[in-house]
């Protein structure tokens, strides 16, 4: 379980995050939903250990987060090396998390029907299309088998075909009961297809949390807009 308690962050005396507290349970996909520029990416960076909060705590299973238990993807095309193959990228980045090549090969073979990237493995990453790059970056994030995976705007620039592939890959990964996923996005249509719970953020604060349950997309959208209007 991931628990954040009273996270605060400022840059040059400007409050970016204010008293952020929430819990992410196992086998769940949570969304940080909100407009651009409201602190979602900063929060992902704090959870990932890339920057420190000014105050507050971030605990994974009652302990400070260990970097080998978390994996994060920001802008997909910037996450991997363009001049080496997809396979070599996978080997390199998973090795940083303590994984061996044979483990990577096993996971690629085990999930080949879901990933569907056999034809890309020996191509240089820089030669791929935008959609292919994004899918490869998502797979790279998951190959180290992190307990917590974080994605910042993973659907940016994807057409319908690659968005559906992205949803399939993420949904399959969460079937492992110990895994947790956080997706930060302003794209409510994409999030509706993949997440279980919404954490709505605006102006650096959590202004609401709710479960998707049996809500329709229209109901989720209305709930989100109601929360935003109430915060203005």
Automatic annotation (TrEMBL):
Gene3D superfamilies: P-loop containing nucleotide triphosphate hydrolases (3.40.50.300). Keywords: ATP-binding, Nucleotide-binding, Transport. InterPro entries: AAA+_ATPase (IPR003593), ABC_transporter-like_ATP-bd (IPR003439), ABC_transporter_ATP-binding (IPR050763), P-loop_NTPase (IPR027417). GO terms for molecular function: ATP binding; ATP hydrolysis activity. Signal peptide: none annotated. Residues 2-228 form the ABC transporter domain. PANTHER family: ABC TRANSPORTER ATP-BINDING PROTEIN (PTHR42711), ABC TRANSPORTER ATP-BINDING PROTEIN NATA (PTHR42711:SF5). Belongs to the ABC transporter superfamily. This is ABC transporter ATP-binding protein.
